[in-house]
Amino acid sequence: MIPKQMDQFLHEVLPDSTWRNRLQARGPLRFIEFRSTDLERLHRLGIGVDRLGPRLVVCMWDEESQIEGGGYLVVDNLAMGRPAMGGIRMLPDITPLTVFNLARGMTLKNAAADLPFGGGKVGIVAPDRTLSPAEHTEIIRRFARLLYRYRDTYLPGPDVGTDDADMKTIAVENGLDCAVSKPVDMGGNRIDQLGAAAGGVVIAIATLLEEMLRLKALPQFANLVIPARADLTVLIQGFGAVGAHVARMLAAWPTPPRIIGISDAGGYLYDEDGLPISELLAMRDAAGLVIYPYFIQRLAERRGSGTKFATAADDLLRESAFCLVPAAPIAHYLGTDAGTHPSMTVDRAGRWAMIVEGANTYSPDPSRRAARMRMERHPIHPVAPPACAWSAPSTGSEGHSLHRISWSTPGGSSLRRRNR
């Protein structure tokens, strides 16, 4: 059945005529499709059309399912290749705009990495309660049947709320080539299990520690004290698929830093002397969420413990450390205006010398936030340094090009990437 919050949202924003004229039925499966020419209808969903996309937006659900299961597919752009590739996010508060923003990010990231895939994303509107493993798998299986219709246009992978096991479920339903990041027993590469996204965060932290010495030549960084690795303090917002792997990899350094604070949906833990990361990782592997269970099992009966616990997860951002790793699925984790409802405003936040983002997040500075959003909406007119010249894009059957770029080298020669 269609999720309650999805049903309420769509009936609020879409007129009756859209339901009559656009709703398609394939047995128990239901689809409402929109193309880039449907400006007014997409605007009602919160999505603004630009010269890159979106190419396709689908609202879909299964009427026959006894458990709520439905969501949104956005195929943003196919200029780099077909199909579009991007993960499946599964959360109760998913909206079409959220999925579109994530799909646009995949368009830009796939193009920047020169991958022959367009950009796409799926958001499954999950029930707003704790799901049993069987219920979770059933929702994925039902949604895979909805995605089969678009198997030539969209290639899914894991994202927040899904994992490699879910990709196996999709591959069993739709075919081996209809999902990426499958488990090893299906020929997968264990990218989610090994924590590839976290690896990028940890590499960035190590590189920044080496490069930050050069910043001291600038007046605003003259008094910056750069710690040795053993003295580095780290906060991790979101002890999930990315954050937990960041903690594991940092703890494996020959001289590991002190991870002094972590958070998940159950709250946050903070200890200036460092948290027991190995124990917390073992608890996460066994039960998922760790903060509240750790409090009950280790802290509730202890007096004089140096570990701080609070049920308000966002309050982790009040604590200070040298490095903050935002790794929760919260785009607006830090802001300057309380009226925009950030997780924390900068005037109440702790102090951090380094922020290495492990999630889709934005700068708290309003002008920088606006600039990034403009860039994401109009990347075919970037502000480039003088040595970089972008040629005018051409339009093909798959949408607008992201791909023809010329770089001028100091010797005057150029490196050119052309449309496929």
Q: What is the name of the CATH architecture of the largest domain?
A: 3-Layer(aba) Sandwich
What's the end-to-end separation, in Å?
42 Å
Rounded average pLDDT: 87
In total, how many domains does the architecture comprise?
Answer: 3
Brief synopsis:
By secondary structure, the chain is α/β, with parallel strands linked by helices. 31% of the residues lie in helices and 22% in strands.
How does this structure look, described?
The protein is α/β, with parallel strands linked by helices and 420 residues long. It has 3 domains: 4-193, Leucine Dehydrogenase, chain A, domain 1 (Rossmann fold); 196-363, 3-Layer(aba) Sandwich (Rossmann fold), CATH 3.40.50.720; 388-417, no CATH class. The chain has 12 helices and 20 strands. The strands form 5 sheets. The protein has a 7-stranded mixed sheet. Helix 9 packs antiparallel against helix 10 (277-287). The radius of gyration is 23 Å and the shape is globular.
